[in-house]
Amino acid sequence: MDNDWKEEQEPEKEEHEEASYSFLKETFKDEQNKPRRIVGGLFRTAVKGLVFGVVACVAFAVCKPWAESTFLKKQEKVTIPEDESSEGDEEMTVTEDSDQEQVQEGQKEFTVDNYREMQKSLTDVATEAGKCVVTVEIAGDNTTLESQEENPDSVSGVIIWKNWVEILVAAPARILENEGDLTITFCDHRAYTATLKKEDKNSQIAILSVSTSSLKDSTKNQITEAILGNSNLMSKGMPVITLGNQFGYAEGSGYGIISSTGNYISSADRQYRLLTTDITAAENGSSILFNVDGEVIGIADQMVTGKDSRNLVTGYAISGIKEIIELLSNGNGVPYLGIWGIEVTEEISENQGIPRGIYVKEIEADSPAMDVGIQSGDVIVKMGGKDIQTLYEYQSQLSKYKTGEEINLTVQRMGAEEYVEVPFKVTVGNKE
Fold first, then answer.
1. CATH of 128-222, one of 1.10.3080.10, 1.20.1560.10, 2.40.10.10, 3.30.750.44
2. d(CA 423, CA 408)
3. Torsion angle in degrees (nearest 10) through CA of 188, 191, 196, 197
4. C-alpha–C-alpha distance, residues 124 and 141, integer Å
């Protein structure tokens, strides 16, 4: 095999040597004709240069108009160049431009007729919703001009239930502070005697009853039962309708927006979420809040929702008091211990060495909690065997019990050097 390879390589070697030798021979031969070749090369170069120059001049003359019309015009369009954009930015620009065009088109299309149509729609919702709104007041003597004026102590209520036996109305409980018989005026302006079904002084909500048999047919045919909506879906900026006594007189109506949903008001054992609007209100006003679907989203009483928001319609978010309304409507009391508490957060616990739970800030007098010896400064850590760390957990667990039932509470109480666990057995009460 090696011999074969050598035989293949030998011809290649001979060819290479022959080529090298030939190159040397050509080199020697070219050296003899060098002067004539130089002259001939210069002549050919001069001729080529001349031809190229003539062709270039002709081409420039022919192409000049096209070049000016093409390149100079393009240059004029980018006299003041804009920043270059990526493909994503260009798409964004197109989208933004489209949105702006849509907004502009919408603005152009929104006319006085559109505004009237919108107002009519809101008015229609308010008119229909008004069929479940009532005025509650103390019956008086209507034989004098003075007595026939608007009653400043009247409050607004809402029909939350109706059947062939009774009509149930939820209303601010402060109306019960006045002496005299209760009357409820429905949307047809007819007034009927009402009785107290159940009240909760803790939440300041009362359920009133009117006998269905006492109603005239015209009243029965006009009134409606309210639809209780989901106030948890409400957020800032959403439209709201208020109906009732928010301005200090009956049958008032207001249109606006929700301005705040993050405020709360506390009472014993409970915390209530508030809905604040941008609608002005009288200090003694009360009203029912509706969304644009005509659903109740809040019950407002300016006397109990706090001084800071007393000049704006502010009410309990309906989702937070549905349980209370249901209990009272069925003649049951709202579970009550009489504890004003504060959440001990993880941060507070670490910084101040207080156990996680509900710190007892205050105990109401003559309350079930006071009767068993729970004190201010105690920390509630368990209720019914379940760990309690938030007010929501406290409230939810308490709601599982009925008036008269016993509930086991575990508190941490500060001893001589550290917190010690103390058990209590409390009988659940109510505040009516």
1. 2.40.10.10
2. 7
3. -40
4. 35
From CA 120, how far away is CA 130, in angstroms rounded? 15
pLDDT, average across residues 207-230: 95
List Cα–Cα distances, 421 to 380, 395, 414, 418, in angstroms.
10, 21, 9, 10
The CATH superfamily assigned to 231-329 is: Trypsin-like serine proteases (2.40.10.10)
Residue percentage of the chain with pLDDT more than 90: 61
Q: Do domains 128-222 and 231-329 have the same CATH topology?
A: yes
CATH class in words for 339-427: mainly beta
Q: Is the dihedral of CA 364, 369, 372, 377 positive or negative?
A: negative
For 93-105, how does the pLDDT look when each residue is reduced to its tens digit (9 = 90+)?
334 344 444 445 5
Phi-psi map region of 61: left, alpha, beta (phi>0 left; psi -120 to 50 alpha): alpha
357 three-state secondary structure: strand
In this predicted structure, what is the pLDDT of residue 111? 81
